[in-house]
Design brief:
The complex is a heterodimer. Chain A has three domains: about 180 residues, Immunoglobulin-like, CATH 2.60.40; about 55 residues, no CATH class; about 160 residues, no CATH class. Helix content of chain A is about 50%, strand content about 20%. The longest helix of chain A has about 40 residues. The model of chain A has no long low-confidence stretch (mean pLDDT about 80). Chain B folds into two domains: about 220 residues, 2-Layer Sandwich (D-amino Acid Aminotransferase, Chain A, domain 1); about 90 residues, Dna Ligase, domain 1 (2-Layer Sandwich), CATH 3.30.1490. In chain B, strands 12-11-10-9-8-13-14 form a seven-stranded antiparallel β-sheet. In chain B, strands 1-7-2-3 form a four-stranded antiparallel β-sheet. In chain B, strands 4-5-6 form a three-stranded antiparallel β-sheet. In chain B, a hairpin with a 2-residue loop joins strand 8 and strand 9. In chain B, helix 7 packs across helix 10. The chains are: A alpha+beta, B alpha+beta. Chains A and B meet through helix 13, helix 16 and helix 17 of A and helix 1, helix 2 and helix 6 of B.
């Protein structure tokens, strides 16, 4: 006995653990949200490349953002009329290439990208080692200024990290010293400054590279990429904001390109320009995750309900709610002790209620069963064989349902048309059982069992229509395992049912010595 | 208080449905033995083999076309009972006490015609009253004659005695008295009176109707204080012998007292209900706990009865209706 119990508890623990484990895996590893209302911002970024063609063969090469685990690419689109297109991947990153034998006049190419952030941090790529810093070649004056500046910065810093930060801060200083002014020159544009920082760091023996990226802000147009400096420190690349020396990737910053390859090369054209515009949309997190997981062919998703056609998925949405109904029935019967007519009839009624809405469903149910009982009472006088009688009741039920549909349609209650969702065979059987119950145990028992069935059905309905429960059962079918474990445990419950506390309440009074 | 406290019920040793199903029925009643008691014909045969008195079988009907034979079978009889062989809880039982000019009279005085009886029979054959709606057989039995002892305690029906037998030991007994409200049926749900019976003496202890204590029969107004079941030892013996007969460890034996033939068994139940605790105002748990530790079951029913009488008899009190406290020594929570 004890062994059997232990075995059961181990089984329950295993099933429960497996269920919860899978749920946690899907939530944390695959990013499935636990709430149906979980939304994620999706950024749609459009890069527009404009140039003027000279009538020669044209090759446009454009750097594309790297795919990293932290960012999910939902969609990438390339558009340009009459251009050949290919996507090239090399060690220095992905590039898009448009080509055409001949063109003239203003040309435009589009690249559109939709992404969302998974919230996972990008793991540093260990293989991404820097080449040794190349000492820049400066002229004498420039060199002296650089050395002096580096000396000053070195004095004010403790290590490479603070050195880099201090260097950037010094170059950005509001009151630039003589050396800064000389180094920065008057042509102080972004790219020049980035290159200067990289060169200065190289003189110090520090490897650094340029990073171009885009600040994601809703509804911005004609944006340009922003330069950052990535410095190789203590075995990993650290991103520095070259405007203020801040370390780390800012929020909503999309890294577009690393290294000093050009962002855009246009062969056979001039006046090439690139402009970015972006827009932010909010999407259901669950949809995004499912789509992404299917794309990635994650085993647990690939072999799941999501791989079925949509129609079957919808059927499963309903089917997966049934275990919840079963759990409610188990609780109602074993813990509460409510008597129902037919063990699982309430679940079928609940399913019908889902289609008809609660109030309308209950009204229809009462009308059908009530009318059915009346007609059944007449049938019982006709002296019919049992199977013939129940078949007759089925036809009567269908006739009642048809009448309800027609009458309500004429009266303009469209809702009542959903009456067809009621399980007719089950209703007929219910009517037959209740009618027999009426004859043998009286109307009281009919009310108790009929009311019990309806109450259980309504409670099951309330649970099964709960948005969160609906969402969880469909997206985490593993919940069924948890449900199974719960039912196995409930199957062990040997305590009193709630209704028994009422049934035996007279006993308590009798045993109470204070009362007589 | 509408609800009893769990702690108190537990301390009285009241057993709930879940515990009955889990700790008694599934543990002591092997499923393959159920047909012996679910099929009343089999039970009857077994009982006859064991030398136990049962109501006389007047005939059986198994197929729909047999219904034509009904009239012929009923011809020589003026009183009889029609039962579904696999019915439960007294469902589908039709009692006819008088036949006159092709009219058949029920105990209530209502008259039915042969066509009504035929319909009832074909309903039974179709499985209306059987467990799971399976096709059933009809049995026609001789009517039990009311023992005059119960004349003042029953209304339009025959009272029956339910004895719970646990591993062969009778542990609790109840007399079910028909009332006007129960329509002559000995069914507590429908308003029959349940009278707890002292295992030791066969005397009435405590009575309930619809779960509430009563001290008189609601129709005859007769007080239960003087009620004592005759042939008590014989009844206990019959019930205890059912253990050997069926092998069921937890069973409810339904017995009746026939005026002419004395105690007989009418039905056995592998899933006896729990109302007997209410009728006795006592829980089953302490009594089961007294039997459960026994390593072996005494093969002699008489010895088991002695044991039960010794253990479960009520101490004599002046007012038997007040005796209802479980002995604290027996208060074993299991």
């Amino acid at each position: 006995m004890h062994l059997a119990k232990l075995r059961l508890y181990i089984l329950v623990a295993l099933i429960m653990g497996l269920g919860i484990g899978l749920i946690l895996y899907k939530h944390f590893a695959l990013g499935f949200p636990l709430s149906p209302d979980d939304k994620k911002p999706v950024w749609t970024i459009e890069a527009r490349i404009d140039f003027v063609a000279r009538g020669d063969p044209i090759i446009v090469s454009f750097a594309l953002p790297p795919k990293t685990p932290g960012i999910v690419f939902i969609e990438e689109e390339f558009a340009s009329p009459d251009y050949g297109f290919s996507e090239l991947t090399s060690t220095s990153g992905r590039r898009a290439q448009w080509s055409k034998r001949t063109a003239s006049g203003a040309q435009t190419a589009y690249y559109r990208l939709s992404i969302y952030d998974t919230g996972q941090s990008d793991l540093p790529d260990i293989a991404d080692l820097p080449a040794g810093p190349e000492k820049p070649e400066f002229d004498e004056v420039f060199r002296t200024a650089a050395v002096t500046l580096l000396d000053q910065v070195r004095n004010r810093s403790a290590n490479t990290e603070t050195f880099t930060r201090e260097l950037i801060a010094t170059l950005n200083s509001n009151v630039p010293g003589q050396n800064q002014s000389l180094l920065l020159n008057e042509q102080s544009n972004e790219d020049y400054k980035t290159q200067l920082i990289i060169n200065l760091l190289a003189m110090e023996g520090i490897s650094a590279r340029i990073v171009r990226g885009l600040y994601l802000q809703d509804a911005r147009r004609r944006q340009a990429l922003t330069n950052f400096v990535e410095v190789y420190l203590g075995g990993e690349w650290r991103l520095y904001n070259q405007k203020n020396g801040e370390i780390g990737k800012p929020k909503n910053f999309l890294i577009w390109q690393r290294g000093d390859q050009s962002l855009l090369d246009v062969v056979g054209g001039r006046n090439s320009q690139i402009a970015f515009s972006m827009i932010r949309n909010v999407h259901s997190a669950r949809d995004l995750v499912v789509r992404n997981s299917i794309n990635k062919q994650a085993g647990i998703i690939d072999f799941s309900i999501y791989s079925l056609p949509i129609e079957q998925q919808n059927a499963f949405k309903m089917i997966l709610l049934l275990p919840i109904g079963a759990l409610i029935v188990v609780i109602m019967r074993l813990l509460i002790g409510i008597r129902t007519s037919g063990t699982f009839m309430p679940i079928l009624i609940a399913l019908a209620l889902i289609q008809t809405t609660l109030l309308m469903g209950i009204i229809i149910f009462l009308i059908v069963v009530g009318t059915g009982l009346l007609i059944r009472a007449y049938l019982s006088r006709l002296n019919l064989l049992f199977v013939a009688r129940i078949s007759a009741v089925i036809i009567v039920v269908i006739a009642i349902i048809a009448s309800i549909s027609i009458i309500s349609n004429k009266l303009g209650f469209d809702q009542a048309l959903t009456v067809t969702f009621f399980p007719m065979i089950i209703l007929s059987w219910t009517i037959e059982r209740m009618s027999v119950l009426w004859e043998e145990d009286g109307p009281r028992e009919v009310l108790i069992q009929g009311g019990g069935s309806l109450l259980t059905a309504v409670i099951a309905y309330l649970f099964m229509t709960n948005r969160t429960i609906e969402y969880l059962t469909f997206n985490f079918p593993e919940l069924m395992l948890v449900n199974l474990a719960l039912i196995l445990i409930l199957g062990q419950y040997t305590g009193y049912r709630l209704t028994e506390l009422y049934r035996f309440h007279a006993l308590e009074r009798r045993h109470d010595p204070g009362q007589r | 208080m509408i609800l009893a406290s769990v702690r108190k019920l537990k301390s009285f040793g009241i057993i709930g449905m879940n515990q009955r199903n889990f700790g008694l029925i599934s543990r002591y009643n092997p499923r393959h033995l159920y047909p012996l008691v679910d099929d009343k014909l089999k039970t009857k045969l077994l009982a006859q083999q064991a030398g136990i008195t049962v109501p006389k079988l007047l005939g059986t009907l198994q197929y729909q076309h047999d219904v034509k034979l009904l009239k012929e079978i009923l011809q020589p009889h003026t009183e009889f009972v029609i039962k579904p062989v696999k019915g439960s809880g007294g469902k589908g039982i039709l009692v006819i006490t008088e036949v006159e000019h092709n009219l058949y009279f029920k105990p209530s005085g209502d008259a039915v015609q042969i066509a009504d009886i035929e319909r009832h029979v074909s309903n039974i054959l179709s499985g209306l009253h059987s467990l799971g709606g399976k096709p059933d057989t009809v049995m026609i039995e001789s009517l039990i004659q009311l023992d005059p002892v119960f004349a003042n305690y029953s209304y339009e029906g025959i009272p029956d005695i339910r004895i719970i037998v646990f591993r062969g030991y009778p542990i609790m007994a109840m007399l079910r008295l028909t009332t006007h409200e129960s329509d002559g049926k000995a069914n507590l749900h429908q308003g029959a009176v349940g009278v707890g019976i002292d295992i030791g003496t066969g005397r009435a202890l405590h009575a309930v109707q619809y779960g509430n204590p009563v001290s008189r029969h609601p129709d005859t107004r007769k007080t239960f204080a003087e009620l004592s079941v005759p042939h008590w030892d014989k009844l206990l013996h019959l019930a205890a012998a059912c253990y050997e007969m069926t092998g069921l460890g937890y069973l409810g034996a339904d017995l009746v007292l026939d005026r002419d033939q004395g105690p007989m068994i009418i039905e056995l139940n592998a899933r006896p209900g729990l109302s007997i605790q209410v009728a006795n105002a006592a829980g089953l748990a302490p009594r089961i706990a007294a039997i459960e530790p026994l390593a072996t079951v005494d093969p002699d029913p008489l010895a088991r009865i002695e044991f039960s009488k010794r253990r479960f008899a009520h101490t004599i009190r002046t007012d038997p209706l007040r005796v209802a406290r479980t002995r604290s020594a027996d208060r074993v929570v299991f």
